[in-house]
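Project standup — Tuesday

K.O.: blocked on the structure for the chain from last sprint. Re-posting the sequence here as requested.
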Amino acid sequence: MQGWPSIWLHGLGFGRTLPVPPNRRNGHKDTMPEVMFAGPDGRLEGRYHHAKRPNAPVALLLHPHPLHGGTMNNRVVHSLYGKFQAMGFSVLRFNFRGVGKSQGRYDGGIGEISDAAAALDFLQTVNPNASMLWAAGYSFGSYVGMQLLMRRPEMGGFISISAPASHYDFGFLAPCPCSGMILHGEDDELVPIGAVQKLVDKLNTQKGVTIDYRTIAQAGHVFTPAQVETISEMAEDHVLSILNRSRMALAAD
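H.V.: unblocked you, prediction finished:
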C-alpha cells in the first residue's frame, strides 16, 4: 500500500490484538470455533459463529492493514463480532493472507479483496438461505469491504469504520450498490475527516443510496476501549433499524 505514513508502524496500537477470551453465559463458556477455509492463495484462518435460525443474516468482518499489525483479533473487529452474534447473525472474522495461520503473503490489497470474496463464499456455502449479507470493515478492512460490495451485488448492507478515503480512490463506488453506515473519528490523524465527508456527500447523491454517517468526538484513527463500545453500539443501532425495516416490509406484503 503506497503512501501510508510510518506512524502506522509505531505507536498507534494496530499491533495490539485482543486475546480471544470466551464469553461466559449462564456459567458456560461460549466458544468461537476456529475455521480454516480455502482462499485463492492457500488456507485462511477465521473464527465463525453459526446462528441457530436457518435463514439468519450473515456478516463478514474485515480487519485493518496486515502490514501494520491488523488481525481478526483487533478490538474493533472483535467487538463487532460480538454485536452481530447477539443480533442473531452468522458471523465470520478472518485473517487476510499472511496473517496468523492464514497462508500466503500480503498482496497490496488486490489479493486481500480476493480473500474477502473467498470468505464470503464460505459464509454463503454454510448459510445458503441467508436473509441478508453484510460486510463490516475497519480502516484497510473498510476499503476491502467496499471493494467487495462492487463485486458481489447480493450484499445488502455495509459498515465502514475509519475509511481511508485520503489514501485510496473510492471512485469505484459508482454507483454504490447499497446503502450503509460510515463511522469516523473527528480527530483522525491519518485520514482527515474532510476526506470522509466528501465521500459521504458523493455517495448520498446517488439514487437509492442513503449513508448513515456518524462521527465519534475526540477520537483518532485508533480507538480507546470506551470509543470501541460507542462504535459497536452505533453499528448495532444502524443494523437493527435496517433489519426492522426489512421485517416491516415483509409483513406488509
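K.O.: great, moving the ticket to review. Residues 1-30 have pLDDT under 50 and may be disordered. The CA atoms of residues 88 and 242 lie 14 Å apart.
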